[in-house]
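[job 4471] stage=fold_predict status=RUNNING
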Amino acid sequence: MLAGIVAFARTPLGRNVLAGMAVILLLLSIYGAGQHKGAEHVRKADAKALVKAKADVSAHEATAAGISSRASQNLATTRQANRVRTVTLIKRIPYALPVGSDCPLPRDAVSVWNAAAAGPDAGVSAAPGGPDKTASGIRLSDALNNAVENFEIAYDWRAEALTWRQWYADQSSAWTKK
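[job 4471] inference complete, writing C-alpha cells
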C-alpha cells in the first residue's frame, strides 16, 4: 500500500494532491493556533475584567458600610441628645408649676388625653351624661411628664425617618456612580 502511495505521489496529479493537502494542513494548523491564541486572549481579558469587577464591588461595599455606620452613629447621637433634653425637661416640671397647682386632672381631661393618644383611627366618643369634673387620680405633673416623654419618642421617630431617608439617598448615589 505504501508503494502505491509513493507511486501516486510521483505522478503530476499526485504531487498536486499532496501539495494541496499540505497547504490545507498548514492552513488548518495556522487556523487552530489562531483560535487557541484568540481564546487565550479572551480568557485573559475576562480574568482582568473579573478582577476589576470584584475590586469595584468591594469598593462599593466598603462605601455602603461606611454610609450605614455613619447613619447609625448619627441616629444614636440624636437619640442621646433627645434623651438628655427629655431628662432635663422632666427635672424642670416641679419648678414649672405654681405651688399648689399639681392637682389631679378631671376625668374628662384624662379621657380627651386618652382619645388623642389612641390615634386617628380610634375616633372620639362623647362624654356620657355631661362633663365629669371629678378627680382622676392623675396629677398635672404626671401628665406633663408623659407629654415630655411622648415628645421624645416622636422626635426619635422623626430622626429615624430622616436618617433612613438620607441613608437611602447616600446609598443610591454611591451605587449609581460610574
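[job 4471] summary: The chain has two domains: 1-40, 53-176.
[job 4471] exit 0
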